[in-house]
Amino acid sequence: xxxxxxxxxxxxxxxxxxxxxxxxxxxxxxxxxxxxxxxxxxxxxxxxxxxxxxxxxxxxxxxxxxxxxxxxxxxxxxxxxxxxxxxxxxxxxxxxxxxxxxxxxxxxxxxxxxxxxxxxxxxxxxxxxxxxxxxxxxxxxxxxxxxxxxxxxxxxxx
Length: 158
Prior knowledge:
This protein has helices spanning 14-22, 32-35, 50-53, 55-70, 79-102, 106-134, 137-157. The chain has 158 residues and is mostly helical. The longest helix is centred in the last third of the chain and has 29 residues, at 106-134. The termini are far apart. Keywords: Coiled coil.
């Protein structure tokens, strides 16, 4: 019965009957197998999830819980998340570099300019040395002969 019955329900007590039918005992109906102890009935059981019962899944789940408690993120992040984090890091680094350049004094700026000039000069020297090393031997000998000839001519004039 869905509604609670009051003790002493009788046909003579109309007010008790009205109150008894207005108070619901349960909103949901109880299944038949709970009341009956019939051994022939097969009682429903929760299905076993093979994934959750596997040893690998349990170990992985335990490890993830421990990492979460420690505050460690999983090692394998999605590729999109990795790219977005890298972009954010690069952007922060660029902002810091720009702020550092804005804060540089006049002396630091002049020193940087001189350093760049020196580096360019060294690069030019290296290029000249490479060109001289790559020239054939007869061109080098010819250049040496000209220089010695010019030095001899200058020595005779003076």
